[in-house]
Design goal:
The complex is a heterodimer of chains A (140) and B (442). By secondary structure, chain A is α+β, with helices and mostly antiparallel strands. Helices cover 42% and strands 15% of the residues of chain A. In chain B, strands 11, 12, 13, 14, 15, 16, 17, 18, 19 and 33 form a ten-stranded antiparallel sheet that branches. In chain B, strands 20-21-22-23-32 form a five-stranded antiparallel sheet. In chain B, β17 and β18 form a beta hairpin. Classes of the chains: A alpha+beta (140), B alpha+beta (442). At the A-B interface, β2, β3, β5 and α3 of A face α1, α2, β1 and α5 of B. β3 of chain A pairs antiparallel with β1 of chain B, so a sheet runs across the interface.
Chain lengths: 140, 442
């Protein structure tokens, strides 16, 4: 399968109801994606739980949150919708949490919000939303 | 595996955040390649990696990363913890580095060279050497013959002029240039305790009881030299040159029992009067600027008994803040300011007082507050700051290079004994005097 470009992927995602904020960007950057994952962002590594993370620590030099993708994502419209929807939802929720706390959160709170091993968090909700959009896409 | 170049390109392209790039770079590090990687990345990235390394907990951490499982996160954490320890060990090795000079070169002075990225060394037998910041000899092992056999105690540069001082003379050396094809050398016989270059282009040396010596290094065969001294005999022991908001040179001098002198030079380096601030029992042995760029008239002096005297404005402050820390050993003889920290040399130790200058200039109350400090037992002869980063400490047969940027990131590095110094109240009975200065052209 021929992977599409990032711009094409954005069009596909947005055409299927994914809302992508201007402060989020997607790039093909496989080296920064963990094993067994399709995408990632905020790969900060180990920190003391009480370390303060500023919203600006989540941003690149252009003030955007860079999301890293595996090339395989760009080979399927469903994968594009699922991954873009998931990450966009999670980052939107994360930004709201930062905004509610003077743009600063402790590392343990960021972990609690986005870890796949924590139930009922932003990540879990992002999975549901992505699944919903893919199902909707199939119905169409 | 990704490479340093790829990570830096991703950072440049905005595909990753700075913190992500640091973690990715760190994951490439091994004890074998850490030096090469740290040298390969831009200096600001290397500094960030050093700072990053001290923030990584040895254990019991959370691992931040979207879509990162606990199991994989744990593996990443273990790898980065090893990398952080590697960076910390590498940094610690570089905080204090002995510099090897030419065989037979016994250093008596070390400080800034003619270029920002060079060091200059003076020897016990009157020679001068230059090295790179890494201590590589420049111009081979050849030292410059200065025409003296006395220990060099000060060197300063202005353009192609080099000024040297010993306890017996002030020497001005000029390289050959387009206007004058002959190298020139001027010698003025006087005791001198060092020399500085002012922003307006003069050399100024404290010449003990003789006064202060001003040299205007003009082009041409004549080098105007002026000695200025007050109406009564005072000892100009050490000095620093500041520059006020209108660009005039301000000389602040440690005057031993006469206290601290401030002299504002008028255009053309005319010395009018001297403003003296002292107290009974004073023995002021050194003075330095605190932050010449953002606080151009702030300075700090030190008494032989290790009391610091802090001025936010040496012209207006008639009651500088006195700070005498309990537990400082030895007799003070040198005081330096670097990156907001103060460095005090005593006959027993070298003391680092991190951030003390910054806290004072930012308006914090420093008197009566505990001050973090680090110290080393060093048999130092002299020390100087280079480029607001390096401290060159002259020992009996070698010179130590201390990297204050690394020390700030990793205060426990370098084997420093950490302490929290408490200050005792001191209330000097300040006395002020004004004196006219008279000039003698030489």
């Amino acid at each position: 399968l021929q992977p599409c470009s990032i711009d094409e992927a954005l069009s596909i995602a947005q055409g299927n109801g994914v809302v992508i904020p201007a402060y989020v960007r997607f790039d093909l950057c496989e080296d920064f994606v963990p094993e067994n994952a399709h995408a990632s962002y905020l790969m900060l590594g180990p920190m003391e739980g009480n370390t303060l993370i500023r919203w600006t620590d989540c941003l690149n030099m252009d003030g955007q949150v860079p999301v890293h993708l595996r090339s395989g994502v760009l080979e399927s419209d469903e994968a594009i919708v699922a991954v873009f929807a998931h990450e966009a939802h999670e980052i939107t929720g994360l930004r709201a949490a930062f905004e509610a706390n003077n743009a600063t959160l402790v590392a343990s709170e960021v972990y609690r919000l986005i870890s796949p091993d924590v139930t009922g968090n932003l990540h879990a909700r992002a999975v549901e939303i992505a699944d919903h959009l893919v199902l909707q896409m199939r119905r169409q | 595996m990704t490479s340093v170049e790829t990570i830096l390109r991703h950072l440049q392209d905005g595909c990753v955040t700075r913190r992500e790039a640091l973690a990715a770079l760190a994951s490439l590090l091994t004890p074998q390649n850490v030096g090469a990687v740290m040298m390969a990345v831009p200096p600001d990235v290397a500094s960030d990696l050093e700072r990053w390394a001290v923030t990584i907990p040895a254990q019991g951490s959370v691992v931040i990363g979207a879509n990162l499982s606990s199991e994989l996160g744990q593996r990443i954490a273990e790898r980065l913890q090893v990398a952080a320890a590697t960076v910390r060990a590498w940094t610690a090795e570089r905080v204090i580095v002995p510099l090897s000079l030419a065989p037979g070169f016994v250093p008596s002075w070390a400080g800034p060279g003619p270029e920002l990225d060079t060091f200059c060394f003076g020897s016990e037998d009157g020679r001068v050497l230059f090295t790179s910041l890494e201590g590589e000899l420049l111009g081979g092992a050849e030292s410059i013959a200065t025409g003296t056999d006395q220990p060099i105690n000060g060197v300063a540069f202005l353009g192609n002029r080099m000024a040297l001082t010993t306890h017996r003379e002030v020497i001005i050396l000029k390289q050959a240039d387009q206007e004058d094809i002959r190298p020139r050398r001027a010698v003025f016989p006087t005791e001198a305790h060092g020399i500085v270059a002012t922003r307006t282009g003069y050399f100024i040396a404290p010449a003990g009881a003789a006064g202060i010596l001003l040299v205007e290094p003009k082009s041409g065969p004549q080098i105007p030299i002026t000695i200025s001294r007050p109406t009564e005999t005072l000892t100009f022991y050490k000095l620093t040159a500041l520059s006020n908001s209108s660009g005039r040179d301000i000389v602040v001098s440690a005057m031993r029992s006469s206290g601290i002198a401030e002299i504002t030079l008028s255009p053309g380096a005319q010395v009018g009067s001297l403003s003296l601030l002292t107290f009974p029992g004073a023995d002021i042995v050194d003075v330095c600027a605190l932050d010449p760029d953002s606080h151009p008239v702030a300075a700090v002096a030190v008494d032989k008994n290790c009391t610091l005297l802090l001025f936010r404005d040496v012209i207006r402050d008639r009651r500088p803040i006195p700070l005498r820390f309990d537990g400082i050993e030895g007799t003070a003889y040198r005081l330096l300011s670097c990156r907001g920290s103060l460095i005090l040399l005593t006959t027993a130790r070298i003391y680092f007082l991190p951030g003390l200058g910054t806290r004072f200039l930012e308006g914090d109350v420093v008197n009566g507050q505990p001050a973090p400090a680090g110290s080393l037992i060093l048999n130092a002869i002299d020390a100087n700051v280079v480029a607001d980063r390096w401290i060159l400490v002259v020992m009996r047969r070698r010179v130590l290079r201390i990297d204050m940027a690394l020390l700030a990131n990793q205060p426990e590095a370098g084997g420093l004994q950490k302490d929290n110094l408490l200050s005792s109240p001191v209330a000097p009975d300040w006395q002020e005097r004004e004196m006219q200065m008279s000039e003698v052209s030489v």
